[in-house]
Amino acid sequence: MRIPAKYANILFGGMLSAIMVTVISGTVLFVNQGYSPEFFRQWFKGFTSAWPIAFPTVLVVAPRVRKMVARLTEPAAG
């Protein structure tokens, strides 16, 4: 089953924000506290705290960034 194209921006925002929050929250936790037996529990807690902020932020910011990038770059040849 495939998701209809009209939901592409929401899917993009959800996937991008989930990946970014996973990487950043894990990195920050590891750098600040190192690995411990509680690492994955704390990582999940950090993820669940940050993702609800990151997801709508990506949905709002990504279209604006795409427009800025389009203004700053030359059109693709072809």
Molecular structure report:
The structure is a single chain. 9% of the residues are buried. It contains 2 helices and no strands. The protein has one domain (5-72). With 78 residues, it is mostly helical. Helix 1 crosses helix 2. The protein starts with 7 loop residues before the first helix and ends in a 6-residue tail after the last helix.
Tell me the major beta sheet. Answer: none
Enumerate the spans where pLDDT stays under 50 for 5 or more consecutive residues: none
Number of helices: 2
**What is the helix fraction of residues, given as a range?**
over 70%
- Give the structural class: mainly alpha
Q: What is the count of structural domains?
A: 1
- Radius of gyration (Å): 17 Å
In one word, what is the shape? elongated
Percentage beta strand: under 5%
The number of distinct β-strands equals 0
End-to-end CA span? 33 Å
N-to-C SSE string, H for helix and E for strand: HH
> Would you tell me the overall average pLDDT?
95
Summarize this, please?
9% of the residues are buried. The longest helix has 34 residues, at 39-72. The protein has two helices and no strands.
